[in-house]
Write a structure and sequence with these properties.
2 domains; Aminoglycoside 3'-phosphotransferase, Chain: A, domain 2; single chain; 263 residues; 10 strands; three-stranded antiparallel beta sheet; Phosphorylase Kinase, domain 1; alpha+beta
Length: 263
């Protein structure tokens, strides 16, 4: 039986193969998991097209999905990729072993930051991030229901416009590296012996390493505190700084976490 709803080239490669649907994560994409492939279905948008560009550029540089086929159909982008090895870093197997998980997350960041970005085709510096944030604010795309409780309202910012104004006028110093852009635990795959790979690379490019640090630390803390599961663990997420070999920078952490509230 053919999957007539799929673009022709994609359909040829997956026709008849069993799959499951993956609903982990917050990207809003449809994700079909095959034995050794992944089909990601998203609206055609700048960030979905950036992901294809970055995956092609990253080939051979870091473990990431390889593009098998990519087609557009009726406003949607169908991206068929190879499947990376391992399990998500938020898997119970790893959360139960923070003494292994935290150094492995630091290793993943150092792996990204070691890549030579001189030929990187995507720029995700503060100018690019703020320009996209402004577009989202001006077009009413900020989901104010999916933010930290203290971001808006009493004690916080009046609205997304006020937050954007603060961000534009309080930029921290910039430390460019190959940044993942959304380095939360579901986007890092681990194996028993190392880094399996990185997924969801639509926000990757030349960016600030502190965005990776801020989002990874927040994700680690949320997962350890049981935000996404019933198990709660008393693990200090700041151990990530020791594993990275960097001192905490509260101002940079604050700026990048607040920037992420607009995405």
């Amino acid at each position: 039986m053919k999957n007539s709803w799929l673009p022709p080239e994609i359909e040829k490669k997956v026709n008849g193969l069993p799959y499951t649907e993956n609903t982990t994560g917050m990207s809003g994409a449809g994700v079909l998991m095959y034995e050794d492939m992944v089909l990601k279905i998203q609206p055609v948008a700048p960030w979905t097209e950036r992901e294809v560009t970055m995956l092609q550029w990253l080939a051979g540089k870091v473990p990431a999905p390889e593009v098998i086929a990519c087609e557009e159909r009726e406003g949607k982008l169908y991206l068929l990729m190879t499947r990376v090895k391992g399990k998500m870093a938020c898997d119970e197997e790893f959360l139960a072993r923070p003494e292994m998980l935290i150094p492995r997350l630091a290793e993943a960041m150092h792996m990204l930051w070691a890549v030579d970005v001189s030929s990187c085709p995507v720029m995700r510096d503060q100018e690019a991030e703020l320009a996209e944030a402004r577009f989202r604010v001006e077009h009413g795309l900020v989901d104010t229901d999916n933010v930290e409780p203290t971001t808006f309202g009493p004690g916080g910012f009046k609205d997304p416009e006020a937050l954007l104004y603060w961000l534009e006028n309080n930029r921290p110093s910039y430390e460019p590296v190959l940044s993942h852009g959304d380095l939360c635990l579901p986007n890092v795959f681990l194996t028993e012996t190392g880094i399996g790979g990185f997924i969801d690379l639509g926000d990757a490019g030349v960016g600030d390493r502190w965005r990776d640090i801020a989002l990874c630390r927040r994700s680690l803390r949320s997962n350890m505190e049981g935000k996404y599961a019933s198990v709660k663990r008393k693990v200090d997420a700041d151990r990530l700084f020791d594993a990275l070999g960097v001192a905490p920078d509260p101002e940079k952490l604050k700026w990048y976490l607040l920037l992420d509230e607009l995405f």
